[in-house]
Amino acid sequence: MVWPSRRVAQAEVVAVAARDGSRAKEYAKQHGIASSYGSYEALLADPDVDAVYVGLPNGLHGQWARAALEAGKHVLCEKPFTANEEEAREVQALARKRGLVCREAFHYREHPLMEHLQSVLCSPGAAGKAAAPGLARRAPVGAPAGTNAGDDQAALGGVLGRLSAIDVAVLIPKWVFGGANIRFQETLAGGAAMDAGCYCLHSIRSLIGGKPQVESATATLAPNSQVVDGSMRGALRWDDPHRSSIRATFTASLQHDGLFPTSTISVRGDKGSLQCSNFIMPVFGNFVRLTTRTEAGDTTTTTTRVYGSGESTYYYQLSRFVRDVQAVQEAAASGDAGALVAASNALAEEGADSIENMRLLDQVYTAAGLAPRLPSALAIMRQLSLAKAQPQETATRLT
Ligand SMILES: NC(=O)C1=CN([C@@H]2O[C@H](COP(=O)(O)OP(=O)(O)OC[C@H]3O[C@@H](n4cnc5c(N)ncnc54)[C@H](OP(=O)(O)O)[C@@H]3O)[C@@H](O)[C@H]2O)C=CC1
Ligand SMILES: O=C1OC[C@@H](O)[C@H](O)[C@H]1O
């Protein structure tokens, strides 16, 4: 947030908060930030702050996004949006009521790589269904000039033809996060599906649209936990015949090219296939390998690298967030009913995207035989009540 803000006009980091005021002060000094606070509440009371970036553990996203919205601030909230779907609905309902932007920080989606992928795939088999907001609709690569993504089923096939599968993996090597990391904490809504799987679900939805259901999921628990998944695999199904799979793990033993996390999108259709490497952090190196087959059976493979202007995903994300906030502010200032409705619809669409991703995450956990995650306050209460009921067993689990 600090680096991109130096490159995005009209965005400035004016304040930072930490639970420990001296750390916040030190951070502010290091990064040239005007104000620092020793509590999140104090930052929310600062009238110079227009928008808040919530970069807290998953189980606290909902609580602090709500607090920021109540304080009249726009919100950019880290992924996954909340602990579960119910909480996502509450936060988005509040954002709508207050007329404020509340966007999930899926930074990868604003990078031109995603736009390129969508232009290749162009929602095959998903005619009339909306892709997730934030992605421009374009004609598929290789489609006749003048074709629009929404035109007809033939155009929607893109060069890959009819889709049969889309598989996304986000793999984090086992040496990256120690057991004490927030990602392994039940009371902070941890888990591989939450942390890495949310990208898998979101990218699949962004690329092919529609409303999938989770067909099955299998979790491998993190050490010393009955609740937190160290790895998760899942299968999704759509009304259309294609299938998807997701794979998220904190325990990858990777012999790879050094990229972290390793993130891949793999798509197959009846006329070809696509492999995309490093869609989450494309600025550090990416490729899109496209193989197409003619009816005569000849195959062609092309490799494309997409860097746009060379900026990071975080730059694109902040630019987009600023544009959204400005659109809402301008609509409010204009008093123009049409502009207000348009701004409100955009907020609703954005909110629905986050809610849908959390719905699927809940389904993944349920299908894997684990419960959807809880907001931190509820998870702590649950642990305390378990500790009361089964003191010895819970004590073991907490160590
Ligand atoms: N978009 C992206 O590229 C990335 C997104 N993320 C997301 O950002 C969020 C934070 O992840 P990450 O930065 O790795 O986490 P860290 O553990 O590094 O930071 C979390 C911060 O939350 C604050 N915090 C408040 N309450 C607690 C608590 N009870 N326990 C621990 N920390 C607490 C702490 O700030 P303090 O003590 O200063 O108040 C801490 O510094 C996650 O939701 C994650 O999914 C993470 C990495 C990359
Ligand atoms: O981009 C990311 O990479 C590593 C993950 O653990 C992190 O939370 C994620 O957002």
UniProtKB/TrEMBL annotation:
Instruction: Keyword check for Oxidoreductase, yes or no.
Output: yes
Keywords annotated in UniProt: Oxidoreductase
Q: Which residues form the Gfo/Idh/MocA-like oxidoreductase N-terminal domain?
A: 9-104
Q: What is its EC number?
A: 1.1.1.179
* Taxonomic superkingdom: Eukaryota
GO molecular function per UniProt? D-xylose 1-dehydrogenase (NADP+) activity; nucleotide binding
So what does this thing catalyse?
D-xylose + NADP(+) = D-xylono-1,5-lactone + NADPH + H(+)
Query: In this protein, which residues make up the domain named GFO/IDH/MocA-like oxidoreductase?
Result: 158-274
Q: Name one Pfam family in it.
A: GFO_IDH_MocA
**Entry annotated with the keyword Ribosomal protein:** no
Q: What InterPro entries does UniProt report for this protein, alphabetically?
A: Gfo/Idh/MocA-like_OxRdtase_N, Gfo/Idh/MocA_domain, GFO_IDH_MocA-like_dom, NAD(P)-bd_dom_sf
The UniProt entry, under Gene3D superfamilies, shows: Dihydrodipicolinate Reductase, domain 2, NAD(P)-binding Rossmann-like Domain
**Enzyme class, broadest EC rank:** oxidoreductase
Family assignment from sequence similarity = Belongs to the Gfo/Idh/MocA family.
Name assigned to this protein? D-xylose 1-dehydrogenase (NADP(+), D-xylono-1,5-lactone-forming)
